[in-house]
Structures are given as structure tokens and as C-alpha cells.
Write a structure and sequence with these properties.
heterotrimer; A mainly alpha (281); B alpha/beta (434); C mainly alpha (296); A: mainly alpha; 13 helices; 68% helix; C: 296 residues; mainly alpha; 2 strands
Chain lengths: 281, 434, 296
């Protein structure tokens, strides 16, 4: 009796999940099928199927422009995203450790300041920021995109890590202190491994957000050889002329591959990381 | 006390940061090298568009650099809207490109704040030769009496219609000089012949300030006066809306939700390309783009006019201007000259962003034109005698455009009567233009 | 207090905080204060800002209809979108955490919408799906319902954007999942020994231990939803139409700043929004003492 009941609920649960899945993934399927369509069919076909399919969007799209192919754009995007992950993980975890586990003067107002800086719409700080990076001579380099990441400018991740670090029992530090560990060691050997889910989450988000970011990359990168994937994609758009949707969808589909791969790769960590760490609360 | 201190402190900071910038942009762009006594100059050239245009400009720049070994051109580009976001940031941040592509709807923002280099002397000395241009086209590039940009391609708007659809429906196509009344009658005739309730003649133009400009100029007025006030009366605007409202009620233009759904969609997705409508008002150079997404043949005539009135035509285009902060205005002018006077440059660029102003250049391009280009070049030549140079929009012009669109939507959705919407528009415009 | 003493007491904290402090000083504070100063000025992008005191604020708060309109749109978006998205994210996270065959596949699929971000493909597709001839109406037609153009009707357009937000629930879901992973299994085991059923475990173990994460997601969603820009921008093509029904606050701010070049006015709008968000956040922090549980 009990068994059939659980089997029943599992079945219903699967049904719900499958229904939600289809709604979730339809846009991806649409983009994927559009990427194989002829330009004139993309907006006239009612559904996913078309009368003719082609590989041209991929072959011609990959060539990019001016001898700079998407291979280069992918490399550049990986560089920017990779550096951003490193920067965010180091600097945000340090700041979070200070806010979550240490006591010092002006902690509360500084925490408030951190939150406050996230509340100002960025449109009004774009120009003064540009002035700063221009004065530093960083325009047309990757520095404006990367250096701030090493200074924990993304409060989202600090706050995220704080919440996870605060959930780690205080007795652990006390025990470690008795064992003669300094704060640096506690941070490195104890807190970071225990906050692994937060670090992994931060890495995933940093990668995706940087990978998809358009505005700041457009603002600071002008040379084609520095172009990232998201800049390369936008060159298929031309509101004043002819946009090349087929190629846009083809390269957009490819650009989702690394994002998806990173997600699959890290989510493994997310599940197995804690047990592998061997420390339990 | 605190405020005063803050004011002084921030003023100093901002003065350093915002207003006095531009000094170091040159050192960056300038990568000076003594090479055989000649200074190597790097110029930044910014434009809007996509990969196809990039390919063309790369070729042109290669040729230009071969002819001017001391100049190196760096391209900066993006799609139209992001282009102007980036340009505004660069100019405000003291880091403007040397040569900027400009548009009639945007240039006053820059010209009014002295960001564009006056080009009068360059033109007078024939450093760039524009002596064979129609003077009206030259006048388009003026702001506050000074020439600040030069056209590299022009297009007037036209009334494009689906010629094959007319043929199939057995309806006589519109004639070249069509009146507003004839236009409405033609719309009704075609709709009846096609016989489908969800087919419409043309997209709703009642919120498009550009088309309203035609209407106003035909009545001897304009969208703006010379000193930047509204150049039309409430009665003009009411008459304009009554015309379109009647078409809407007769089912000749789409109902409000359909118009809203298609607003801002690109050519591929437009009602014209999908066969929901039979016609469109658009700049001449876009005919080729619509055509490439349609099996039916398009044809073009003038936008409707007033048989007893004046001509309403204006002319749009893409312009080049030089930053007032550029360290190398001479070399920048040299690059503009390449676009306008160099035979190879002219032949490569062709009609990329509209028909060129110079008849001499036009003669060079003509043998290279494909049939679709020929059609639109012929239209442009035919229309040029009719063109006006409208008064330029004042600062806040973009806001006015938006309010004008709001008024139209409010009427179309039945939220306001025509009189209410027009009154509200005049109130808002008064606030913006005060 | 002598400086050496100060550092002995607080040195470690500031050591860990050093990168953040450098960032604040180098990249954040100057732009933030510049925008504050500009909000009291007439600043038309090029040239110097001219101090005009409270004029921008006065105009916004007394005579700007679009300010009121856009604030209303944004409030609706926050108050409907955030709870819906969070509830959905938590529900699915719990379901996935329970362990279900194909867990990883589902989780990956649910995360797909969040990967798209503000991509052009989504804006195109969303307008198609909710258009008059769109897939949604084709679906409704199977039940004999004649649908309207959801995206182009002023009364419904905003809800399609709220739906877009709920559809992208993957990010808070991942954070919930990470939080659920952090709950030690022993707590569930000891609860079982005490004879707790599924609901009791959920109410006594899962929810209390997840409150810091719920709190985090709530604060972040509020902050970001108030500043929502991309969905409205890509879906209405930057216009905020039809009839200003999707004129989000930051979209209006962007139009003022980057289209009309009234950066002073736009900055004042930004600071008013900051005050509103700060008020909401403070409120959330004050109530959090009652319901958020941290490990002692």
C-alpha cells in the first residue's frame, strides 16, 4: 500500500517535472532549430520545423569578421570570464570572511555601505567610471572588466558567502583556535572548504554573467581582436540594415555550450563537494 | 557650510574629471612615431551597423591607408542604439572618436554643446570638395549657422507598395503624386479587392512625427520653428489625427494592439514582409532590405501630398563629423575627403547608406548599381527638387517624439479623445521646451 | 586610542577587507559621489554640471507624471514578480533536493532560462509567443478561447514580463539548492529518531536552517527587481510601450539620461530609487531578527 503510494507520487512528480521542463526549454529548442533555418523562413515558420535546413549559419557565422573568427572571441571570453571568477572568488570570500566571522570597528556601517553601493542604478555611474578608466589609460584593454573583480566590487557574492559562512557553527573556529590555528589558516583550511557550495555558486554565476555581459564589454573593447563572444554576436545585428538572424542564432547556440558545460561541471561539485570534503557540521 | 564645502570639493573633482577631459585621448590615439620625418597619426572612426558594413569599411580603410601611409584608422562600431550610448559616454568622458558617424535625430545634442568641429573652412578651401552638391543637402549638416557634418548618403522617405499584390487584386497602382484623399480611397479600394478582414493597407503613421512633418510642411508650417518651439497648432495635429483615426475606424490601418505588437520590429518581421499590409513609408535606402525578404516586387512613389499645398519632402541621411577635441582635424578631414572625393572610395562605398549628394560621384557609381539600387537612385533623383530643409529639432526633441507617440497610442487604444490627447501633448511639450 | 592598539584589535578584519576597501576607494566612491553631486545639478552630459540645488528633486516629486507611472510599474513588478519567482524556485529546489530520478537533467533544464539572460533571441521569441498569432494563443484556441495580443495590450504587457522573470527562476533555485546541501544530514536523522514526520522535518529543520538563504535571495531579488532594466528594454525595444505600461523605473531613468541627455535629472531619479530600495532593505533587515536563524 505504502509502496504504491510513493510510486504514485513519484510518477506525479515526474509528470509535473516533464511539463515544466518543456515550458522551460522551448525557447532553447526554438533557437536551436532556427539556427539551421534559411533566413527567410525564421520568422515565417509557425513552429520548430521548417521546409529546408542548412549548416550555412554555422559555417559562415563561425568566420566572424575581418579574419577574427569566433574561435578568437571564445578564447577572449574565456579569458575575461576565467579571470573574473578568480578575482571574485578570492576577493569576495576574503571580504565575506571578515564580515561573517571577524569583529572589527565600523563593521556594521561598512556592511551597510556595501549593500548601499548595490542599490544605485548603474546608468548614472557609467560616465564617471569611464572617466576613471580613461584617466588610468585602461580603455580598450580588458583591465576595466577584470581589475574591479579583484577588489570585491560585486556585493552580491560577498553577501552570498556571508550568509553561508554564518551558517557554519562557531565552535569549529574555537576548536581550531585552541589547536593553534591563526585567522588566515581558519579562513583557508576551515571556512573555505565548508563554504564550498557558496563558492561554486559564485563561480557559476560569475561565469555566466560575464559571458553574457554586453554593455561594459561594448563600452571598453573596441578592437576586433579583443572582441568577446557577446560582442561578436551583436555584429550580426544591424537595425539600420540587414540583421543576420540565422548566424546570430547559430553562434548564440554555440555560445551556450560552454555556459552549460560549466554549469554541469560545477553542479557535480555542488552535490559531491561537501561529502568529499569530509567535514560535517 | 557643509553644502558649500561639498560644492567646492565636488566642483573641483568634476571639473578635473568631466569637463577638462580630452587631453589624454590624443596621446593614446596618437601613437606618434617619427618615420622619415612624417608623424604617424592614428584616428578613431566610429559608426553604426554590423558585419557587412565592417567588411566594406575595412576594405576602404586599407585603400585609404595605402594612399596615406602616415595615417592609421581604427574602427569602433556597434548597432544603432548601443552606438549612441557608447558615443555619449565617450564624449562625456572626454574620449571622443576623431571621426563620428552622425544622424539627423541626434547631432543637435552634440552640436549645441560644441562637440563637433565646424567644417566651413574645410569646405570653402576645397580641402573637401562639395562644390557640385545640391545646397539643400549641405544645409542639412548645419547647426547654429555652422557646418558641422557632411552627408555620405541621403535618402528621402517614399511610399513603398507591394506592386504584385496590386496586380493580383486587379487594382491600379498609386500614381507618383498621390493626394491624401486619393491615398485613403486607394486603401479602401485595395482592402475591398483583397477581401480579407485582417489585411490592412499600411501601418499606423499617426504617432510618427516624421510623417507629421510632411503634413505640416504641406500646410506651410513645420514641426518646429527656427527658435525651437512647436511649429504647428493644435488644429493641425487634430486634423492629422482625424485623418488616421478615420482610416483606423474603416479598418484600413491596423488596430492599436496589432500596431503595438509590430512596433520596432525589423524588416524581416514587418507587417509588409509578412503580407499583413500592402505598403510602408520608409527611407529609400531601406527598400532593398524589405525587398530581400519578399517574393513580391516593391515599387515606390511619393508620400501623399496636398494638391493645393507645398511639397512636404525632407531628406535623411548619414553624416560624418569631426570631434571638436580631435588632435588631428586635418587628417580627419582627409578621411572624409576619401569618402566624398576619392574615386576608389566613392566606387567602393556606393549607396551603402543612401544616395550620394555629388552628381560627379553618382555618375561613377551608376554603372555599378544592381536593378534594386537603380530603382531607388532614380526615385531619389526624381524627388530631390521637392525636398525642404526642415528646422532642426531643439534639445528635448527626442522627448517630444516620444510624447507624440504616446498621444497616438492613447487615441488608438481609445483611452483619450483626439482633443484630449492633443491638449495633453501640448502641455507636455510646453514643459519640455520651456 | 593609539593607532597600534587600533590595529591590534581590528587588523585582521581590515586585512581581509583590504581588497574591498581598495575597490570602494578606487572604483566605487568617486562615481557614486559624482552622481550624487550631479543629481543636484543641471548636467547635459557634455560640459560641466551646474549646481541647481533641489530643483531636479522638486520637479520629479511634484510635476512628473512619468515618474509616478514608472514607479507604479516597477512596484507591481517587484511585489508580484519577486514572491512568485522565489516561491517557485524554492518549491522546485525542494522537489529536486528530495532526490528524484533524473535529478541532474531536470536541474540543468530548469537552469537553462537563466543562462539566456537578456539575450536578443529571448526578446524576439517572447514577443512571438505572446503575440496575437503566438503559441500561447494557439494553445488557448484548442480550448476554444480566443486570445488577445498579450504583449501589445496595455493591461497585460507587464504580466508577460513578470512571467519572463518567473521563468528565469533558475538562479535563486541554484542558491536554494546550495543552501539545502549545507544542512547536515545528522539533523534530519536525529529528527527522525525523535519521531518527526516529513512535515515536521520540513518545518523544524529545513525551513529554519534555510532562512539565511531565503533572506539572501529575498534581499537580492528586491534590489535587482527594483533596478530591472534589461527585460523591459529588450521586450519593448526601449520604448516602455504600449502606452507606457512597461515603462520600468530604470528604463525611464535611462531614457532621461542617455536619450534626452538630462543626466542631472536621471541622477536624481537614481538617488530617489536608492532611497526606496534602502527603505525596503532596512525593513527586511529589521524583521529578519525575528525569523532568520544563524548558527550560534
Amino acid at each position: 500500500m505504502n509502496r504504491t503510494k510513493t510510486a504514485g507520487t513519484a510518477f506525479i512528480r515526474h509528470l509535473i517535472n516533464i511539463a515544466v521542463s518543456i515550458a522551460m526549454i522551448y525557447p532553447l529548442l526554438w533557437m536551436f532549430s532556427s539556427s539551421f533555418k534559411l533566413p527567410q523562413n525564421i520568422f515565417t515558420d509557425k513552429g520548430l520545423w521548417s521546409s529546408a535546413f542548412t549548416m550555412d549559419n554555422y559555417i559562415l557565422g563561425w568566420k566572424g569578421l575581418s579574419g577574427a573568427s569566433f574561435a578568437l572571441f571564445f578564447r577572449n571570453s574565456f579569458f575575461v570570464s576565467g579571470m573574473s571568477i578568480v578575482g571574485n572568488l578570492i576577493s569576495c570570500s576574503m571580504a565575506a570572511y571578515a564580515f561573517a566571522r571577524l569583529s572589527f570597528k565600523f563593521k556594521a556601517p561598512l556592511f551597510g555601505l556595501m549593500l548601499l553601493t548595490m542599490m544605485l542604478p548603474h546608468h548614472v555611474t557609467i560616465i564617471p567610471q569611464y572617466v576613471i578608466f580613461n584617466k588610468l589609460g585602461w580603455v580598450n584593454t580588458y583591465l576595466p572588466l577584470i581589475v574591479p573583480k579583484f577588489t570585491a566590487t560585486e556585493g552580491f557574492f560577498i553577501f552570498l558567502m556571508i550568509q553561508f559562512m554564518r551558517n557554519i557553527p562557531q565552535e569549529l573556529d574555537q576548536a581550531a583556535t585552541v589547536d593553534g590555528c591563526g585567522q588566515v589558516q581558519i579562513y583557508w583550511r576551515l571556512i573555505l572548504p565548508l563554504a564550498l557550495p557558496a563558492l561554486v555558486t559564485a563561480a557559476i554565476f560569475t561565469f555566466i554573467w560575464t559571458w553574457n555581459d554586453f554593455f561594459s564589454q561594448m563600452l571598453y573593447l573596441s578592437k576586433i581582436k579583443n572582441y568577446t563572444v557577446s560582442l561578436g554576436l551583436r555584429t550580426f545585428l544591424d537595425a539600420s540594415g540587414e540583421s543576420n538572424w540565422g548566424r546570430l542564432f547559430a553562434m548564440s547556440t554555440l555560445s551556450l555550450v560552454p555556459v552549460f558545460a560549466i554549469f554541469i561541471f560545477f553542479q557535480k561539485f555542488l552535490i559531491e563537494g561537501i561529502t568529499a570534503g569530509g567535514v560535517k557540521g | 557650510m557643509f553644502r558649500k564645502g561639498l560644492t567646492i570639493g565636488m566642483s573641483a573633482l568634476l571639473a578635473a574629471a568631466l569637463s577638462a577631459c580630452g587631453g589624454d585621448s590624443a596621446s593614446k590615439a596618437g601613437e606618434k612615431e617619427a618615420k622619415g620625418g612624417q608623424e604617424k597619426v592614428a584616428l578613431r572612426f566610429s559608426w553604426w551597423g554590423g558585419e557587412a558594413r565592417h567588411k566594406l569599411f575595412t576594405q576602404m580603410i586599407e585603400d585609404f591607408e595605402k594612399k596615406h601611409p602616415n595615417i592609421k584608422i581604427e574602427q569602433e562600431f556597434s548597432d544603432f542604439d548601443p552606438y549612441f550610448d557608447k558615443l555619449a559616454t565617450q564624449v562625456a568622458g572626454g574620449d571622443p572618436p576623431d571621426i563620428m558617424s552622425m544622424h539627423l535625430t541626434r547631432y543637435m545634442d552634440y552640436a549645441n554643446r560644441n562637440q563637433l568641429l565646424p567644417l566651413d573652412e574645410i569646405v570653402q578651401s576645397k580641402a573637401v570638395d562639395v562644390s557640385d552638391w545640391n545646397p539643400k543637402i549641405l544645409d542639412l549638416g548645419k547647426a547654429n549657422g555652422k557646418l558641422v557634418m557632411l552627408s555620405i548618403g541621403n535618402s528621402s522617405k517614399g511610399f513603398f507598395y507591394n506592386a504584385d499584390l496590386f496586380k493580383r487584386a486587379n487594382v491600379e497602382p498609386p500614381k507618383f503624386d498621390i493626394t491624401w484623399d486619393e491615398f485613403a480611397a486607394k486603401a479602401a479600394e485595395l482592402k475591398k479587392a483583397v477581401g480579407k478582414p485582417d489585411f490592412y493597407f499600411i501601418d499606423d503613421q499617426s504617432g510618427i512625427m516624421d510623417t507629421f512633418g510632411y503634413f505640416n510642411r504641406q500646410r506651410g508650417k513645420d514641426n518646429y520653428t527656427k527658435d525651437g518651439k512647436l511649429g504647428f497648432t493644435k488644429e493641425d495635429m487634430i486634423a492629422y489625427h482625424q485623418y488616421w483615426d478615420k482610416l483606423r475606424k474603416d479598418g484600413l490601418i491596423p488596430p492599436a494592439p496589432l500596431s503595438a505588437e509590430y512596433k520596432g520590429k525589423q524588416h524581416q518581421e514587418s507587417m509588409l514582409a509578412k503580407g499583413i499590409t500592402a505598403a510602408v513609408f520608409a527611407p529609400g535606402n531601406q527598400m532593398k532590405i524589405y525587398q530581400s525578404f519578399m517574393k513580391d516586387e516593391l515599387d515606390v512613389v511619393r508620400e501623399p501630398g496636398d494638391p493645393n499645398g507645398k511639397s512636404g519632402e525632407d531628406i535623411g541621411g548619414v553624416f560624418l563629423s569631426i570631434s571638436a577635441k580631435s588632435k588631428h582635424p586635418k587628417e580627419a578631414a582627409e578621411f572624409i575627403k576619401y569618402f566624398l572625393n576619392d574615386e576608389d572610395g566613392v566606387k567602393m562605398y556606393k549607396d551603402e547608406q543612401g544616395v550620394v549628394a555629388s552628381p560627379k560621384s553618382d555618375a561613377l557609381i551608376d554603372p555599378l548599381r544592381v536593378p534594386a539600387d537603380k530603382k531607388i537612385a532614380a526615385y531619389q533623383k526624381k524627388i530631390t527638387p521637392y525636398i525642404n530643409v526642415p528646422n532642426t529639432a531643439p534639445a528635448g526633441g527626442n522627448d517630444i517624439n516620444k510624447q507624440f507617440g504616446n498621444a497616438s497610442e492613447a487615441i488608438a487604444f481609445g483611452k483619450k479623445t483626439i482633443e484630449q490627447a492633443v491638449n495633453d501633448f501640448f502641455n507636455e511639450a510646453g514643459k519640455i521646451l520651456k | 586610542m593609539r593607532p597600534t592598539h587600533f590595529f591590534k584589535q581590528n587588523g585582521t578584519g581590515y586585512l581581509f577587507l583590504a581588497p574591498w576597501i581598495i575597490g570602494i576607494l578606487a572604483f566605487t566612491l568617486i562615481p557614486v559621489f559624482a552622481s550624487l553631486y550631479i543629481s543636484f545639478s543641471k548636467y547635459e552630459m557634455f560640459g560641466s554640471p551646474v549646481w541647481i540645488g533641489l530643483d531636479n528633486y522638486k520637479e520629479i516629486l511634484t510635476g512628473d507624471e512619468q515618474f509616478a507611472k514608472s514607479l507604479g510599474v516597477t512596484f507591481k513588478y517587484v511585489l508580484l514578480g519577486v514572491p512568485l519567482e522565489l516561491a517557485f524556485a524554492l518549491l522546485i529546489a525542494m522537489m529536486l533536493h528530495k532526490g528524484i530520478r533524473g535529478l541532474r537533467l531536470y536541474r540543468a533544464i530548469y537552469y537553462v532560462p537563466s543562462l539566456f539572460g537578456g539575450s536578443v533571441a529571448i526578446s524576439l521569441l517572447w514577443r512571438q509567443l505572446f503575440g496575437a498569432q503566438g503559441l500561447v494563443n494557439q494553445f488557448l484556441a484548442m480550448f476554444g478561447i480566443q486570445g488577445i495580443s498579450w504583449i501589445a495590450t496595455p493591461e497585460t504587457a507587464l504580466y508577460t514580463i513578470i512571467l519572463l522573470k518567473v521563468w528565469q527562476f533558475g538562479s535563486p533555485m541554484i542558491i536554494f539548492l546550495a543552501g539545502l546541501q549545507q544542512i547536515p544530514n545528522d539533523l534530519y536523522e536525529s529528527a527522525s529518531i525523535d519521531g518527526a514526520g516529513r512535515w515536521a522535518k520540513f518545518a523544524k529543520v529545513t525551513i529554519p536552517l534555510l532562512t539565511p538563504i531565503i533572506f539572501f535571495n529575498m534581499i537580492m531579488q528586491i534590489i535587482s527587481a527594483f533596478q530591472a532594466f534589461t527585460p523591459a528594454y529588450v521586450i519593448s525595444g526601449g520604448s516602455g510601450g504600449p502606452l507606457n505600461s512597461t515603462l520600468f523605473y530604470t528604463l525611464y531613468l535611462y531614457q532621461k539620461g542617455f536619450v534626452s541627455f538630462q543626466m542631472g535629472y536621471a541622477s536624481a531619479l537614481a538617488w530617489i530609487l536608492l532611497i526606496i530600495i534602502a527603505a525596503f532593505t532596512t525593513l527586511a533587515f529589521l524583521t529578519s531578527k525575528k525569523w532568520v536563524h544563524y548558527e550560534k
